[in-house]
Amino acid sequence: EVQLVESGGGLVQPGGSLRLSCAASGFTFSSYEMNWVRQAPGKGLEWVSYISSSGSTIYYADSVKGRFTISRDNAKNSLYLQMNSLRAEDTAVYYCARTRLPLWFDPWGQGTLVTVSS
Amino acid sequence: DIQMTQSPSSVSASVGDRVTITCRASQGISSWLAWYQQKPGKAPKLLIYAASSLQSGVPSRFSGSGSGTDFTLTISSLQPEDFATYYCQQANSFPPVTFGGGTKVEIK
After folding, report:
1. Which of A69, A80, A75 is nearest to A34 (CA)?
2. Using CB atoms, which residue from B87, B91, B100 is nearest to A103?
3. What pLDDT sits at residue B4?
């Protein structure tokens, strides 16, 4: 069974940092492009970042560029999101999602909640 | 960036009703459109991709149509498990991927 499990969310003060992880299983992780998508409380979906299967190509949403860093470890079947200089508006559930070519998201993890508040 | 606009933002319907949700792109996206279903507290689930292709395991009462800028998701006979929020997503222009604002299907 294909499974994505996020971890690392929590409460952090504005300006702080947090590192999210996404553990993949049930498929050949190294063959798939991956993404982070977030959802603020009561709001819609916002794509955050993309990484190619090898990690050589990376994209970010303008709202997080320069503050967030996506990475992956194919040997550990894991995806990461390093979030620095966090702001209140970064408060959201963060989902990792596998890319189904060309750019559909399937499946998604269960999400991890990040709350930025003093 | 391509803007995706969904309408209505919410719809009240009864079991057995036919429900139609519309998604409009700010510029042509050919058939590069997907629909997702999200239930409260759960992750989104891919329903339809490439505008009209049904994801494996999704009931046939769901269908998608359209191309260019105007797209439609139709539920032919609403079932109790279909009450959820639905999102469209364009994959024509990247980055960024963009989603519609969502349509909540509520019980009448």
Report:
1. A80
2. B91
3. 98
Report the pLDDT value the prediction gives residue B95, as an integer from 0 to 100.
95
Q: How many CA atoms lie within 13 A of A57 on its CB side?
A: 9
Confidence tier at B53 by pLDDT (50, 70, 90): very high
**Cβ–Cβ under 8 Å, residues B30 and B38:** no
CA distance linking residue A51 with residue B55, whole number of Å: 24
Distance CA B98, CA A37 (A): 10
In one-letter notation, the amino acid at residue A24 is A
Q: How far apart are CA A109 and CA A81, in angstroms?
A: 14
Q: How far apart are CA A85 and CA A77, in angstroms?
A: 27
Long-range CB pairs of A52-55, under 8 A, 24+ apart, other chains included: A54/A30
Which B residues, 41 through 100, put their C-beta within 8 Å of a C-beta on chain A? 42-46, 49, 55, 87, 89, 91, 94-100
b/e map of B79-104 (b: 16 or more CB within 10 Å)? eeebebbbbbbbbbbbbbbbbbbbbe
